[in-house]
Design a protein that fits this description.
alpha+beta, 30% helix, disordered N terminus
């Protein structure tokens, strides 16, 4: 069996690297996922990119996870490493009892000290994944099977944030790499060291990542021995490999190719799943760079962008125009608010009143999402109609994210999906002054009044009060024209019909429940 697997693996890698070998069908015990680009960083305490989480989420476990009901995802939580938990009446102290016998991939135990190490490391690094954790959080291990969290301030979504990728439990033995002169943070950027069902075994940049089944799986052993992630930049090539049987799942296919596959549903062994999603697409307007530091200019841009035409022309009407930051389906959404109207005459009037002419702006995008390029071209045309000249800069995704993170742009495009089921993901992340840049506030917006409302919403315990505060903050940020809210769209996943058990969760975009999945003959 080992010889058969090694020969097949060689063929898969040859195909991934552009070789001439062609597979008729991937092996039953191997899952092949096609993506457009490499991950950037695999350290769960550092990465804020769903593209990276395809690798990290199955490589690590967390204290809690999302429950699946009758094959469908939910926002309800259940224990992952935790067997049970309890909190004090004021929800300021939380105790988690660990399941006995859990092991990291190297066989060492997942105990309370390992959990404590992981959270203290996360909080000490102060990268994006630590942002939702309340300041002053203390973690202790009263005994080998108990983890205790003490909060200094109330934080309503505390339990929910323990399911995010940043809450992954890392094997403390990773610190051996620091002793060798290599910082653990740097080593984990390209390796995994967790207790998840699969661990990274090789990474050929630009070609493929191979993840092998852990020798110590916690829970039921997965059906797959390997998960292979192939990097194929061209969407048409990913589709052809999916149809030819060289891939089991193909990500980021453009709308026209998805519609073509749906029209042939079931033929060539390919099906397209259409899943209700909280994923949104919007334009970042850099509030710190002139002339976008002026609200009237941002309002003019919003009025000039024909969102309805983008939805109809690029997505055949299969998306919903957004009316504000919180999407439909998330509590706190303001169903009474209307999307911004397409009003080019108003845009010209605003620019004339501002005394601005010959505005020239850059528009950043990457090859990560095939729909971004036509959206950028449509936006460029819309803004030219009101006298704003836009230069498009299309670049590799890693460079794109780096420039966005440090604010080196005028306009940029982005997708966002929540990591946990709370409006905090769309409000606090997008608008808090201390989250500017890579952490979430990618328009570099600052408003003390909004900061105060968001802080109160995060700390309030009553859902009705939190919803009221979030809706009040929404009205302010919409009036401040912080972003161009484009659309909310279902997630569509193209896969071989032989793939079984795939469960899509709106909080886990680009993350697959590979431990529970399998393939039929």
């Amino acid at each position: 069996m080992k010889l058969k697997l090694s020969m097949l693996f060689a063929v898969v890698l040859a195909a991934a690297s552009g070789g001439t070998c062609v597979l008729a069908k991937t092996a039953k015990d191997i899952l092949v996922i096609g993506k457009s680009a490499d991950p950037q960083n695999l350290d769960p305490a550092v990465t804020m990119d769903n593209n990276d989480w395809t690798v990290t989420y199955p490589a690590y476990q967390r204290l809690v996870r999302y429950k699946v009901h009758d094959g469908k995802a939910s926002s309800e939580l259940e224990g992952d490493l935790a067997q049970s938990w309890s909190s004090s009446p004021d929800a300021m102290t939380w105790d988690f009892k660990l399941k006995p016998g859990s092991k990291f991939a190297d066989g060492s135990p997942v105990d309370a000290q390992a959990v404590k190490f992981s959270f203290e490391r996360l909080l000490a690094l102060k990268k994006g994944p630590s942002e939702p954790f309340p300041p002053g959080l203390e973690v202790s291990a009263p005994d080998a099977s108990t983890v205790r969290f003490k909060l200094k301030t109330g934080f309503a979504p505390f339990l929910s944030i323990l399911a995010i990728d940043g809450a992954s439990v890392v094997n403390p033995k990773v610190m051996q790499y620091e002793q060798n002169g290599d910082k653990a943070q740097g080593w984990l950027a390209g390796h995994t060291m967790g207790s998840g069902a699969f661990q990274l075994s090789s990474w050929q940049k630009g070609q493929s990542i191979v993840m092998d089944k852990s020798p110590h799986p916690n829970g039921a052993a997965p059906a797959f021995n390997k998960v292979i992630i192939k990097f194929v930049p061209e969407a048409s090539a990913r589709r052809l490999q999916l149809q030819g049987g060289d891939m089991d799942i193909a990500e980021d296919l453009p709308p026209d190719q998805i519609e073509s596959l749906k029209a042939q549903q079931g033929r060539q062994g390919v099906v397209v799943g259409d899943y209700p999603s909280l994923r949104v697409t919007y334009l970042y307007l850099n509030n710190k760079k002139a002339p976008l530091d002026r609200p009237e200019v941002r309002r003019a841009i919003i009025a000039a962008v024909d969102v309805r035409a983008i939805i109809d022309g690029i997505f055949s009407g299969q998306a919903k125009a957004m009316n504000g930051p919180i999407p439909e389906g998330m509590w706190g959404h303001d169903a009474q608010a209307a999307p911004a109207a397409f009003a080019p005459a108003k845009a010209r009037e605003l620019l004339a009143k501002a005394g601005l002419r010959n505005i020239r702006l850059g528009f950043l995008l990457s090859d990560k999402d095939p729909s971004w390029s036509p959206i950028a071209l449509a936006t460029q045309s819309n803004l030219a109609d009101v006298g704003i000249q836009v230069r498009l800069e299309n670049m590799a995704n890693a460079s794109f994210r780096e420039r966005v993170g440090k604010g080196d742009f005028d306009i940029a495009i982005g997708n966002w999906s929540p990591d946990f089921a709370d409006p905090y993901m769309f409000m606090n992340y997008w608008f808090e002054s201390d989250k500017q840049g890579a952490a979430g506030n990618r328009s570099f917006y600052s408003n003390p009044r909004v900061d105060a409302l968001l802080a109160r919403a995060a700390h309030a315990s009553a859902l009705s009060e939190r919803s009221r505060l979030y809706q009040e903050a929404q009205k302010i940020v919409v009036d401040d024209a912080v972003y161009v809210y484009l659309f909310q769209k279902n997630t569509q996943i193209a896969a071989r019909s032989s793939v079984k058990g795939l469960v899509f969760n709106p909080m886990l975009e680009q993350i697959y429940n590979v431990q529970q999945m399998s393939k039929s003959e």
